[in-house]
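Aim 2, interim progress. The first record below pairs a target sequence with its structure tokens.
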Amino acid sequence: MRKNLCFALIIVLGFAAAALPALPALPEDLLFKWDVRIWGGDVAFGWKGWDLFPGVDTVLWASTGGGWQGSHYFDGSDDNTLVPADPDTALYKNLNVDWRFGVAQGILFNPAQERNLLEFLLLYRGKYHDYSDDNGVLTGLPEENGLLQHSLTLGLLFDNTLVDKPSLNSRGIYAVLSAEFAPDWLGNDVLGRSDFWRLSLGLTGYQPVLDSPWVSIYLADRVLFDRIFGDQVPISTLSSIGTLKKIPIGANPRRALGGTLRGIYTNRYDGYVKLVNNFDVRLHFPGLTLFQLATPVAVAYFDAGVYDRMSGELQFDAVYCTTGLGVGLYALGFDFIFYGTYFLNEGRLSWELGLGTHF
């Protein structure tokens, strides 16, 4: 019954995300953002009509979303035993719903972009996971029957990024430092167990190198660090990186090495400490735009990362690296990209569809 209710909510959110952009323009003080994932959707509303301090924005945020997603659980800290002969035996399905409420308080304002340049974030997040585990990979774990989690996050965020039109080149810097707290007394012992806190850092930069009527090129680089402390840490936390997004929506927190490094099974290489770098060369072809709607896009990338193998200290003897190419279309505000990725450590080639740029 509860699974049917969650699935119905995901369908409603998906239709709402598709329909709302077609509605009349929103009031100036009301912000709206929608996002999609495989398979699911998210919506977020913000209101900046109540300023606590002059010269900067105070934005109140509320968002919700859900998805039906496949994940893996590879038991063990020894890298040689992480992946069974058939990785599908480590696969389980996750029907998830989350909801967030928070405030972004401006510290410095960017008049050129008419938004905060530096802001303080305070965010509550609740999430519910209902697992379909035919392989029994979660048996014996605290969340084997599902997970209900509540957390509070504090953060500082710097953002001067923008997208040039019509070239679609991104430029600027996005940086965030955050701390997430999920103690057991916050209702985290009702379904599953959570009792942890973590410190996360993310730094992303975009630099255009070519802007012409037919082709535009820009470079993108991202560094992520995540350190978790605690005695009760669910696998959904171990396999994620807690850096915040400016708008609390979508895949937030982000996946850890498995997922953030393209071409690696989701949830692989999870742990208490993670360090990741992604580097992209992105091309758009505005001169080839189809029906003034869809612009061809291509990307070449290299990803690398290390983790602690559940030891609490980063292990640099094995650096995991993937590289590949992607092609697709930019339409409706999203990049729909088909990736071909080569995992250098194992000599394995894989294919996947991405909704939106990787970062």
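The second target in this work package is listed in the same format:
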Amino acid sequence: MMSQSLKHLASRSCSALALAMLALLCACGGGSPGISPYQVAVDAANATAAQARALGVNTPCASNAQCGVLVLLPTSTSCLCPSYQAYSLTAPTAANANSTAAEQNVLALQARALLPGPIPAIACLCIRPPVAACTANTCALAP
């Protein structure tokens, strides 16, 4: 069985490889004809967001202190309102979930920087960042 530190190292190594590939594709004008550097960046950010959501599991909790909130940024809108997911800080994958969400935030901002054309100015209303609470032995978002 793989130790937690080896799992974290493997996850970080894969993430570093993905970032290097993204940088290479962007520098070379993309990998396939018709796929823009922006789309490659969006795909990388979305894949990392899915990985963070999968790692952010909800194991049983006994107190609010055992719960956390993952923050994931959008890639393709002019509004930077994040999405949130409650997760258990006591889960074996909690540290990886948190670092993967932070990585997703960087990738999402990089994708937005590559957004083709001008970004339309629209007003958006983001919700106040929620807090995580232990409700019925499950971490959940509380307003």
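Strands lie at 67-72, 83-88, 131-135, 138-142. This observation will shape the mutagenesis plan for the next reporting period.
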